[in-house]
Amino acid sequence: MEELIQSSDFSVSSIEATERAAYDVQISTAHRYPRNVRRSQENAIAIVSMSKEAAATCSYALPRGGTTITGASVHLARILAQCWGNLRVEAKIREITPTQIVSEATCLDLETNLGVRIEVRRSIISKTTGRYNDDLITVTGNACNAISFRNAVLSVIPKPVIDAAYNAAQNCIAGDLSDEEKLIAKRKEVVDVFINNHGATEADVLKLTGKGAMAGIKRDDIVFLIGLLQAIKDGDTSADEIFGRNSSTLKIGQKLSALSEKGNQSLADKKGVKAETTKKPDNTIKPGGTLGFDNQKK
After folding, report:
1. Do 213 and 161 share a structural domain?
2. Is residue 269 part of a domain?
3. pTM metric for this prediction
4. CATH code at 121?
5. Which residue in 76, 82, 220, 259 is deepest, having the highest Cβ count within 10 Å?
6. What stretch of H or E contains 93?
7. Using alpha carbons only, how large is the chain's radius of gyration in Å?
8. pLDDT higher for 122 or 68?
9. What is the pLDDT of residues 72-130, one digit of tens each?
10. Based on the domain organization, do 116 and 208 belong to the same domain?
11. Top-confidence range, 63-72, 138-147, 224-233, 287-296
12. What is the DSSP letter of 293?
């Protein structure tokens, strides 16, 4: 038994020595080839500005607590980490509790010896179905790792460098909106994605931006809406959450309504009479009228 313990201790010591040697090599290499801050920033700006599709992935917008949070996405953090260089970044799942999954990310700047460790927690409990299944826990874990990675990297790289790349991406997202015609075309393009892909209405989009009419949606609002679309695409949120919809409640209501109508018809058939259906209110917007938002404003 004593020999086995000594062998185990020797193995652990060997692993620690190997890891320490790897760190020493990386640090000495970083000092031998230090980063050029200006070139690193210019490279990041060039990458995020390569296309509108690439720029759109660099920001996110999430509804939280009655407001909307915007910022640099994990995609931008990866680009910055690659261009900044001489970084060692690691993100891993540290713990899975009955209700949460915990990710831990570490980012070390090998040049400045600055290290940051970030912890991120995500719930694995659904309001309707209870604890997630194994596949959904895996998906949530990957998202949790991405968030902790982003937070760690953005805590090490200087904010002016982050802001420069972020603003370049925002300008690329909006594109050329130098005249009203281009602004209208871009606005229609973005709003149509919400309507065609996510079951929204113009009134829903107006509510997101806080505008009273489509003409009030300007450049910054368009960038904000694109950020929401990216958050939906990345799985950080959903259209139902953004628009305050409860899809499960709607489905239950529809089923109850159908069962009620079926029961009334069955009872009427037994009595030999035709069942009366409740006349639905006419919500059609008539000339001069409004429903929710004033659609007559342009």
Report:
1. no
2. yes
3. 0.67
4. 3.30.390
5. 76
6. strand 87-96
7. 27
8. 122
9. 999 999 999 999 999 999 999 999 999 999 999 999 999 999 999 999 999 999 878 88
10. no
11. 138-147
12. B
**Which of these, 152, 91, 93, lies nearest to 117 by C-alpha position?**
152
Domain shared by 182 and 202, yes or no? yes
Q: Which helix (H) or strand (E) holds 107?
A: strand 100-109
CA-based nearest residue to 166, from 70, 58, 60:
58
**CA nearest to 228, candidates 214, 238, 217:** 238
pLDDT digit string, tens, across residues 23-38: 788 888 888 999 999 9
The Cα–Cα gap between 32 and 40 comes to 17
Same domain, 151 and 68: yes
3-state helix, strand, coil in the chain (%, to 5): 60, 15, 25
Q: Decide the pairing of beta strands 114-123 and 125-126.
A: unpaired
Phi, psi of 106 (to 5 degrees): -125, 130
Q: Which residues pair with 70 in a beta bridge?
A: 61
Q: Which is it for strands 67-72 and 87-96: parallel, antiparallel or unpaired?
A: unpaired
Task: Please tell me whether residues 219 and 257 are part of one structural domain.
Answer: no
Token pair, residue 204, equals 């829903």
Crossing angle (nearest 10°) for helices 180-198 and 219-234: 30
